[in-house]
Amino acid sequence: MKWVKQDLQQYVQAKEYVDTMIVPLLPFQLSNDSNLEKDAFQNEMLSIFNRELEKELTGRVLLSPDYHYLASAGKELELERLHTWVDDAQTQSFPFVFFITSDSGWKKIEQNLKGTLYGCLLSHQTQ
Predict the structure, then answer these.
(1) How many other C-beta atoms lie within 10 A of the C-beta of residue 42?
(2) How far apart are CA 109 and CA 113, in angstroms?
(3) Which Pfam families match (predicted)?
(4) Which helix (H) or strand (E) holds 56?
(5) Rounded distance, CA 95 to CA 10, Å?
(6) pLDDT tens readout for residues 31-45
(7) CATH number of the domain bearing residue 49
(8) pLDDT of residue 121 exceeding 70
(9) Kind and range of the H or E element at 84?
(10) Per-residue pLDDT tens digits for 84-111
């Protein structure tokens, strides 16, 4: 189920069957012109991947809104904010949370995430 009105209406009716939330992690930056096109392409591909994944698992997963963060900021700074997303989701019976990203920088702090990190094949390295 996507984060759109119709799907959320269905979610409310069937939430006992939806046990997984997928959180797309998307880096954003404007400071490096040479990476803008590559970054945009990777975000587009990740969005397509997430939509297809949600389509395949409709009725079992909720695809959250994209989580955007500044690519140049340290991932540790984002942990607290991400944890508030997960804590809120877990009040709604989401025992499984998956973070999907093309940014391999998340691997360094993967053990600190309240969820499972899945890195797509598109490699994007930030701090």
Answers:
(1) 20
(2) 7
(3) DUF2487
(4) helix 33-56
(5) 19
(6) 888 888 888 998 899
(7) 3.40.50
(8) no
(9) helix 75-90
(10) 999 998 888 889 999 999 898 899 999 9
